Amino acid sequence: MHELTSLEIGILVRELKQLEGSRIRKFYDLGNGAFKIAFYKSPDTKLVYIRLMKTMNLTEFSEAAGGATQFAMAVRKRAENSVVDKIQQVNLDRIVRFELDKGKRSMVLEMYGKGNLFLMDGSSTIETVYKTVVQKGRELKKGATYSPPANASRSIFDIGEEEARSIAGGLAVEKSLIGSLSGVLNLGPIYLEDIITDAGLDPMDTGISEAQCGKLADSILEFSKRLASEKPRIYMKNGEAVEYAACSVSKFGGLETKEFGSMSQLLDELYLTDRTSVPDTSRQERLKELTLNIEKQEQLTAQLATDSVNYAVYGKAIMQNMNRINELCDYLREHRRATLEEIRDKFPGLGIKGLDLKNKTVNIELGE
User: What pTM, to 2 d.p., does this model score?
Assistant: First the structure.
């Protein structure tokens, strides 16, 4: 199953527009890069399920959430009860921004790399982040300034004939046709490949003729029409889901299909089984912490038991040699310039190891 594409994110953002004007009622960290957000706008509460790289859909299913993680508490502190002013796809890329409280704060969801979710203030300074990322030229960490990647992509939703021909005719194919096309139509490999093969071309072609440009432009227009008129669907084999798409895709033409009224409905069903088995990592973290605490307590108890035995031995040795120790103390009071060798000769049975007249201490090793 492919990761969520820019095209599908664009469709989902359109479906999530109904949440604009609502308030964030609750934020849950479900573990393993999965989150659930409750949005309230009278008289309804709507739930959005997020799984990094996989989905961001309105959902009818509400799994139980464990105790709040530190990240969940940080998000709740800053974002709960905030008004969602705008939900938008950033630069037609795999980035979604929830603008809160008239730009005072934003929640940003990235669906590329390994995926991430973070909050930033009105000056784009990151306040809290799910996963800290520090790489050359890119930092996602508390206090860093966020800047999304530049993207020259064009929207497929309202493309016309003139723009389609401009895109096809303006391609500078170097390494591959699909790579070049992705620079102006950031749809995702599954859809770009479909557009190219429907034009009778090879995605790995390194050049394109004027006649082929015309065929590619026609294929782009045809795909745009399909996208506007067809429903999203899951492709199945022997009753099992093998792939999904926002509209029909030629390479899956021989498979069974199940159509849905929205992309959210499709993804809600597709990942429902996975959701019921997502580990509650917050609970695992608490159990791990408790286990470590128990181990530390057991180690401390064992050490105390050992120490109590040792202290009993030491006490017994001191009591057995108390008279000689007192005699040593009296001798040192009378002989303030005594040397280590002198007191060793005077008190051979005490096992004197050291003498510090300045600090008035004697180091004695006693047997049992």
Answer: 0.72
